[in-house]
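When time allows, look over one protein, given below as sequence and tokens. The question is which stretches look regular and which look disordered:
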Amino acid sequence: MATNTEMNAARRFAFPAFAVLMLVLPALPVPDFWITQSNYIGLYSLVALGLVLLTGVAGLTSFGQAAFVGVGAYSAAFLAVKMAASPWLALLVGVALAIGAALLLGAITLRMSGHYLPLATIAWGLALNYTMANMEWLGKYDGILGIPTLKVFGMDLGTGRGLHVLIWLFALLAAAASMHLLDSRPGRAIRSLKNGATMAEAMGISTFRAKLTVFVIAATFAAVSGWLFAFFQRTVNPSPFSIGKGIEYLFMAVLGGVGHVWGAFLGAGVVKIVEDQLQVLLPKLIGTSGNFETIVFGIVLVVVLKYAPDGLWTFVANRLPRADRVRDWEGAPPLAAREKPQHGELLLDVDKVRKEFGGLVAVNDVSFNLRAGEIVGLIGPNGAGKSTTFNLVTGVLSLTAGHVRYRGDDITGLPSRKIAGRGISRTFQHVKMIPEMTVLENVALGGYLRGECGVVRAVLRLDRDEERRLFAEAERQLARIGMADRMHELAGNLALGPQRLMEIARALCSDPALLLLDEPAAGLRHKEKQALGDVLRQLKGEGMSLLLVEHDMDFVMGLTDRIVVMEFGIKLMEGTPAAVQASPEVRAAYLGTEH
């Protein structure tokens, strides 16, 4: 069986070996036809790679990538033929126009949820295709002909073997950039988008900014592909940039493996090769000509979505041994820590908070406070308004009335990511995580606000020192809760108890002064509850302050300093665990009356 070192070495050399093969392929005795096919695969892979990041990783569906390809292609054609401009200037102009269009579309649609982005990309694709087909200066349906071949350092690349090297150089650089991005602080932020905004925003991530970033990256990849396509075809017309082609690009990404970088290359290769073969075979089998390959691909897509929803690459990935991350953060300097409050300092002041949903008053003028070093419990029967109050404090919901103050500052109305930046971190009633990432990576996501490296530094691999510090901190927090030995496991493979502990470690990774736990013992077995209680007592002993929403009365009574009891959205009482247990009102409302 291969050792972890051997697996890491094999993975490390797989990409360089593939890159060398594709770059030297034109020098090998390969037929020109296969060079042409490889050129198309490289061009399609660039576009599909953007869709892997956009749709597979970030969860944003786009049908308009062909339109961004058209922007790059028409920019190259117009500037090269009409203006006799440098092809490199055409590349810059095409990319700039694609980024501008992506920023405009993103600003309009990315703050919305659901179907708005797919509909906007369809409208964008149709509008651009109609524009290209009806503008005289773009040649209408005939397009722009006579594009000169691309020259690099005075060497004419032609449209075959010479251009192959450039096409694959761009495709491989895009793949490397994508892998570097996904293995970074901004990459983890992008990967968190697919699981909804609530958890990401609570970690301090601007989900809108992350969505816009990946949308622009996908548009850039498409525009570069279009620029190369123009010099490869030496003519452009509206047909290759239609909405149908946009759907085909998405099909390539889904077929290959929409969540995997190499799925883009596999999907593009399979679609291009099979499409060409079907165009020859199907007319012979059916006895008539037509675009029958579209029907076949439709059937194939249904089958893939049914039996291999993660795409064909999963069959490859499942046969490859998974290597653990190289532990290279030993001795990394610690991350900067925030100033902690003095024991007994008023930390959280909830003042007459109110939340109305239409005519329903979910939280009715509830007030309580929490001092540094305390564990305060928030309890009540189902529907009492506990979780709503919790979400009002953390900025997930907006207040109808009242104020929330943290360390003397009014944080009422701040979004959850801003509240996280003040030093408040939280877990969730239903565990929120990224199942495809390791435990260590999930916990490192909690340290997002403690880093500062962005996309450019991540792509260029200039963020490694910060990454080592983040992973050292993540491992330290896992060790703090007794899970350091499981840091390389996939988070989705954990049982519920360890998942809840992992969430606590992720929250601790942000270096909070106040930790809010939403039903952390829910669904846990007795032993797991005992382990969780020990962890929380340990945190309190280290000076951590906690606000706890919980249903398990034994768990709460043995852990908290004070308890706030809610019923029907109002505060029923507040006191020590002993006082709460002795209260007839609480027994009647929650614990049950004595016979």
